[in-house]
Design a protein that fits this description.
By secondary structure, the chain is an alpha/beta fold. It has twelve helices and 23 strands.
């Protein structure tokens, strides 16, 4: 007889989803995590980041206001970083309390400690040992910190939301979506920002046209963008941080704040997975299509695996894993049409294959691309174009990928996903009558 039918290790998005689903299926469930409920997304990721995006958007709206007849649009132009930080923390506390209430209502036991495998069915939690029938590992990922001189002077996404003051000179290393988003937000809030990236263009993995559009936009906003450049070492001086670079730019930069946005790696160190018979490759837990590990009683979901590292994906995988264990039949997740977004200004959003991926998958591809100035920017001197790109299978005429850059494109794109999953064709798209005047209507006139 086991203490619990299921132990979930990790109370982030995937773990919470798995625990509640298993409890709804009638299982006796415990969830273990020494950290705050909600994991990265709630405490140091999606939620506080999006709140900062909204704060920056208000500043941009003020700058546009004069063109729309507002006589004194800069009457409230002093930004109070500490006030925003306090408001964000209060909202996060409410979310954590909500998660706690939902776990209690579902009958899930919350264990505020780290878990370590002793055997596949025996787990050490602090000063106690539990026996469990099944385990779902959902420990997420942590920021990558390379072994470089002075690396401890750099902050990660765990730290950036808790800064006591708004940076004056901010250097960001890494041109993925975290680096792009934070460079844009802090620049809008008044910081002098330098973005360093080892690639020739930011946002690797996104469609080429999306990457170029965001890259150019960040530079046009006054962000110093150093491509094909790497971090060499960091030193603390009397006048701030001295950041030595290598590659295309070999300068030594000065900054009061350095953000390391070099990617994330699965958080597995304390689990003792070898004792459980769980295989790890390239630092991540190996799973099959049903999230099962090499040990049949142990599953893994979310960023501790090599699946798509996004909150909705972890939630879907956690739900499916619990249903696989305690439902009528195994459940898997379809990763073909997972959308993603970069919350800059302008915003980028994408779903499906990039042009390059499509050309590697099918014999004949057609690409339909359009750039236009939205009506919102017809009056202001500040111009901002929207980009729409549709990638199509030339033989079946089915849409393989949809990519956009512009205001609110994340909200626009996800409405297309159900139709795309069902094989939406270019003709079906262009035969649709759209709302006018909107930016989204341009998608229906793409051919």
């Amino acid at each position: 007889m086991y203490d619990y039918d299921l132990l979930v290790i990790g109370a982030g998005s995937g773990g919470l989803s798995a625990a509640r689903t298993a409890a709804q299926c009638g299982a006796k469930v415990a969830i273990a995590d020494p950290d705050a409920l909600g994991g990265t997304c709630v405490n140091r990721g999606c939620i506080p980041k999006k709140l900062m995006v909204y704060a920056a958007e208000l500043a941009r709206q003020q700058r546009l206001a004069k063109s729309y007849g507002w006589v004194n649009p800069n009457a409230c132009d002093r930004f109070d970083w500490s006030a925003l930080r306090v408001a964000m923390e209060q909202h996060q506390a409410k979310l954590r309390q909500s998660y706690q209430s939902k776990l209690t209502k579902a009958g899930v036991t919350l264990l505020r400690c780290a878990a370590r495998f002793l055997e596949p069915h025996k787990v050490e939690l602090g000063d106690r040992t539990l026996t469990v029938d099944k385990v779902i590992v959902a420990t997420g990922a942590k920021p990558l910190q390379p072994d470089l001189p002075g690396i401890d002077y750099g902050l990660t996404s765990r730290d950036i939301f808790r800064l006591p003051d708004l940076p004056r000179q901010l250097t960001i290393v890494g041109g993925g979506y975290i680096g792009a988003e934070f460079s844009n937000m802090f620049c809008t809030m008044g910081a002098q920002v330098t973005l360093i990236d080892k690639n020739d263009c930011i946002l690797p993995g996104f469609d080429h046209d999306i990457r170029q559009a965001i890259h150019t936009s960040l530079m046009n906003q006054g962000i110093r963008l150093l491509s094909e450049t790497a971090l060499e070492r960091i030193e603390q001086g009397d006048d701030g941080l001295r950041i030595k670079l290598s590659g295309h730019c070999e300068d030594t930069l000065m900054a009061d704040t350095l953000l390391l946005a070099l990617g994330r790696v699965p958080h597995l160190e304390t689990l003792n997975l070898a004792a459980a018979g769980v295989a790890v490759e390239q630092g991540a837990i190996v799973v099959d299509e049903y999230s099962r590990t090499a040990q049949p009683s142990i599953l893994a979901v979310g960023d501790c695996t090599k699946r798509v590292p996004l909150t909705p994906v972890a939630i879907a995988a956690g739900r499916a894993a619990a249903q696989t264990l305690f439902g009528p039949e195994p459940r898997s997740v379809n990763y073909r049409w997972v959308p993603s977004a970069v919350f800059c200004a302008p915003e980028a959003a994408t779903v499906g294959w990039t042009e390059a991926e499509a050309r590697n998958q099918v014999d004949a591809v057609s690409v339909h691309c359009k750039r236009f100035t939205p009506l919102r920017y017809a009056l202001p001197e500040q111009q901002q174009q929207t980009l729409v790109k549709v990638v199509v299978d030339e033989r079946s005429h089915q849409i393989l990928g949809l990519h956009m850059v512009g205001d609110n494109v994340a909200e626009i794109i996800q409405g297309f996903i159900p139709a795309l999953r069902r094989g939406l064709t270019l003709a079906e798209l262009t035969e649709t009558i759209a709302l006018h005047p909107t930016s989204a209507e341009e998608i229906f006139d793409i051919a």
